[in-house]
Amino acid sequence: MGLRLDVALRRSADGHMSSEQASADGTADGGTAVADGGTTTDGVVREIGHDEFDPVGTLSLILVYLAILVVMWIFMYFVEFLGNGPTVVG
Amino acid sequence: MEIHRYEKLWLGASLLLIVTFIGTIVFGAIGPGVAMVDAEGGTITPDQLSADDRFSDPRVEQVGENEYEVYAIARQFAFQPDPIEVPAGSTVTFYIASADVIHGFEVAGTNLNTMVIPGQVTKVTVELDEPGEHGIVCNEYCGAGHHVMEGKLNVIPQDEWEGSDA
Predict the structure, then answer these.
(1) What is the mean pLDDT of chain A?
(2) Which residues of chain A have pLDDT under 70?
(3) Between residues 107 and 146 of chain B, which touch chain A (CB distance below 8 Å)?
(4) ω before B77 within 30° of 0 (cis)?
(5) H-type helices in A31-89, by residue range?
(6) How confident is the model over B103-120, as pLDDT tens digits?
(7) Do residue B32 and residue A77 have CB atoms under 8 angstroms apart?
(8) Per-residue DSSP letters for A11-24?
(9) What is the CATH number of domain B39-161?
(10) Any idea what DSSP says for residue A10?
């Protein structure tokens, strides 16, 4: 398992692992062949580079969180505070 | 260091949020003119309020067209004068002094809310546009009768105003 993890994390200079390496390491460890873009249950399923990884869920959560903050701020400042006059002006 | 474009996006959004927060505060200060209570009122000796022209006779005084000054005292356990009466549509400056301990001066349900510290004259200016009756409460624990310490601020409609003899 340790070997396979190592393989999964190792990248060549251009960000892609060579298929020969994947195949060799995959078979050496457990006998399960790893095909590029394949769907094997045991091993590297898909290799993607740094910029190809899109954490859409994380982005959505952060945007929702920011939206909540903006709405709450607008409510607190403009409705609860400024709408609650008279306000000290001097 | 390589920063993912999504990370750049939410870092930028976070910075924009901070700028927005600061922007609204700046808007509040410039637009509606929200101000902080400061030490502009000066100092006074708490047990010698009667020696001060302003506080020897707590009152409302007209100082200009639609401009009034209120000289008020907070003491255990009342506000003077009570009620404070001013006409609607006026700019009112409160000078509030404590005769004994720390009190609060909060016109309930509004942003007119300040501490009254013995030795310090609290000066706050507000624009009272709408007629109405407001309660004034002490919101700093000031002793055994703190819970009954209250006053009234009556903003009288312009056509019913007969001068500041409160």
Answers:
(1) 70
(2) 1-41
(3) 107, 109-112, 114, 124-129
(4) yes
(5) 56-74
(6) 999 999 999 999 999 999
(7) no
(8) --TTS---HHHHHH
(9) 2.60.40.420
(10) -
In whole angstroms, how large is the CA radius of gyration of chain A?
A: 26
Q: Is the ipTM here above 0.90? A: no
CB B84 within 8 A of CB B166: yes
Side chain identity at B152, as an amino acid letter?
Answer: K
Taking each continuous run of H as one helix and of E as one strand, the counts in chain A are 3, 0
The minimum CA-CA distance between A31 and chain B, rounded to whole Å, is: 36
Q: Which two tokens stand for residue B157?
A: 């409609």
| β-pair partners for B155 | B86, B132
Query: B82 CB contacts (<8 Å, ≥6 apart)?
Result: B151, B152
A87 and B110 in contact by Cβ < 8 A? yes
